[in-house]
Specification:
The chain is an alpha+beta fold. The chain contains five helices and five strands; from the N terminus they run βααβααβββα. Strand 4 and strand 5 (102-108) form a beta hairpin. It is globular, with a radius of gyration of 14 Å.
Length: 125
């Protein structure tokens, strides 16, 4: 699992270019597609993105620190939305404060982790 605090760091995840662009597009859309505006808001309201990698399992996720595990549980239990990002990935968001600060979870739909299996149930709702 990887934690992303800067949108530009998404390029370091090693995603296929079309997936990377689709993810960034989705993240900056509410900001009229201005990546710098989106990043300014992320910084101001403490927004992050967790990338659950294809190699992650419930066991590996359980070894993450308690703060990360707590954030993942929050997204799993209280998603504002869960959207498909291509046929292969999903993106979920949970808002955790009144300023709109939140946490995204981005993961391959093929992941068999508990969190992804739970989030997949929200895809068509």
């Amino acid at each position: 699992m990887k934690l992303i605090k800067k949108i530009h760091d998404i390029a370091r995840l090693g995603l296929a270019p079309d997936i990377e662009q689709a993810l960034i597009h989705h993240l900056i859309e509410p900001f009229d597609f201005y990546i710098e505006s989106a990043q300014d808001v992320w910084n101001e309201i403490n927004t992050t993105l967790y990338y659950i990698e294809p190699s992650d399992s419930d066991e590996t996720l359980s070894m993450e620190d308690e703060a990360d595990q707590s954030m993942l549980r929050f997204v799993k239990n209280y998603p504002e939305f869960v959207d498909a990002i291509s046929d292969s990935y999903l993106l979920a968001l949970a808002i955790f404060n009144s300023d709109g600060g939140g946490c995204y979870v981005f993961a391959p739909k093929s992941s068999q982790t508990h969190i992804v299996n739970e989030l997949k149930t929200h895809l068509d709702n």
